[in-house]
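Write out this protein's structure.
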Amino acid sequence: MVTLKLALVQLATGAHKATNLAHARSKVLEAAKAGANMVVLPECFNSPYGTQYFGQYSEEIDTARPSESIRALSEMARDGKVYLVGGSIPEREAETASLYNTCTVWNPEGLLIATHRKAHLFDIDFPGKIVFKESDVLKPGNKITEFATPWGKFGVGICYDIRFPELAMIAARRGCVGMIYPGAFNTTTGPMHWELLLRARAMDNQIFAAACSPARDMDASYHAWGHSTVVDPFARVIATTGDAEDIVYADIDLTLVDEVRRSIPIYSQRRFDIYPDVAADDKH
């Protein structure tokens, strides 16, 4: 299989979890009906985004005893018969009660196939514009995450993870053909870096890169940038949108990965005799 239809659900969310889950389900099934093979939800799709909300909306991730959001995600993937990158939810670890910002990935049978805890926590301070510190509440994850599909392997990062090129570089060197980033950049960092970072990760590694944002809600405490976007291995934007709720579709032609690597063969031109190979010491 060389062509994958990808759908990014730029979801409008609110304070009521059950409503968010039902709305997400309707959009996932809408994308599946439109022919999508893989559907992506945004960061914190089941709740408002903010440190004040993580504890209140947190759930354990246990498929043997599924919580509200875990059951809903499994059913969305199964009923839509799609690979589902389930955005992220606030996760509460059963043993420690620690909180994580966690993405779950599901196959078309509704089975959990990957879990990624946000590795780089969003701690920023733009004087007079925005201060945010996820580490006040969350713990960071400690692994690189990938999952297999009939179209190839894909890596997963969450929002701020995209700023760290090593994550995508190691995933690409492991054979991933794309990186998927559920994210919620804001109206300060979004216009500066959202598209730029996606194009950089795609260009550096000659892979596809996609980021799925919530829709913008100016009545919420956090204003998401929106602009869910897909970039190809030549670093070209092939699908995007504005800040309102939308579904972004892109036909992912996997032959482009080989084409760009033949045209610009950086994978065989690296000079590990003069700089280190970040993937060689990968222990994750």
